[in-house]
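Could you help me review a protein record that somebody else here produced? Here is the record exactly as it was handed to me:
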Amino acid sequence: MLLQIDATEPEHWLVAEAAHVLRRGGVAVIPTDTVYGVTCQIGSVSAIERLYALKKLDPKKPLSILLPDIGMVGRYSRTLSTPSFRLMKRLLPGPYTFIVEASSDVPRIMLRKRKTIGLRIPDNPIALELLAQLDEPLLTTSIRNPDNQILNDPQEMALRYGSELDMVIDGGPLLPIPSTVVDLSGRDPVLLREGRGDVSALGLFD
């Protein structure tokens, strides 16, 4: 199902339709403030397995968690320092993924031997409205073609993966630039990937 939603003023009832699909254990593509991501609810093991199968991902590969607000950071991270939390609070919502030590609330299927997880709060009206209606995090990863190129055309995603997806939200065109990734799991913050998020705003190199 391809669902068009206004990118700046999302229609509440349309977002509610998407939320219903995800609550049922569905897998959906949604826009973020970076690229489109394929998502499912964090509490649905069957949906997580479908997501991994869709992407043909090794379960050892990490997924990120989309949070509805900064208040949920403490639930999915442990031993996060005060400076690290302040950094996240200052830059989120925004195009950053922060790697933190995972708490026991992170599904075991995502961790295996890994002890860290990426946390995001996307600065996108559709994603934020969807997360607010769900009041529960979503798991996400970028969606790519067989050549490992990021897909950003919702209609192409629906055509290519339609039988494996329950919904594709069309929130307009996005540039194929992923988030900036910062590792906060160690003693000092480490920049792992420069993406859309302004690196100078991190204050890591003063």
